[in-house]
């Protein structure tokens, strides 16, 4: 009888633990998916080109006109 009571208490504790964890996981998943939707909308943050200019200023060219770009790639 005593072991049955202990098993019942352990089962209830485990059930409460699982319920709390499921609420935490769903809240975390909702916050992560919310951030992805906001950042992909383009309404906030910086664009890819802005990020490249900030992170790699030596690799980003300032001119974007097609006439200044090379006409042949590769070759001797």
Question: Can you tell me about this structure?
Answer:
This protein has 76 residues and is an all-alpha fold. The chain contains two helices and no strands. The radius of gyration is 28 Å and the shape is rod-shaped. The mean pLDDT is 78.
Q: What are the SSEs and their pairings?
A:
Layout: H1 2-41, H2 48-55
Uncertain residue segments = none
Mean pLDDT: 78
Strand content range = under 5%
DSSP strand tally? 0
The main pleated sheet reads as: none
What distance lies between the first and last C-alpha atoms, to the nearest angstrom?
90 Å
- The geometry reads as rod-shaped
Multimerization state: single chain
Classify the secondary structure makeup into a structural class. mainly alpha
**DSSP summary: helix tally:** 2
Helix content: 55-70%
Helix/strand order, N-terminal first: HH
Over the alpha carbons, how many angstroms does the gyration radius reach? 28 Å
Keywords:
76 residues; 0% strand; 63% helix; 2 helices
Question: What's a quick, concise take on this entry?
Answer:
With 76 residues, the protein is mainly alpha-helical. It has helices at 2-41, 48-55. The longest helix is centred in the N-terminal third of the chain and has 40 residues, at 2-41.
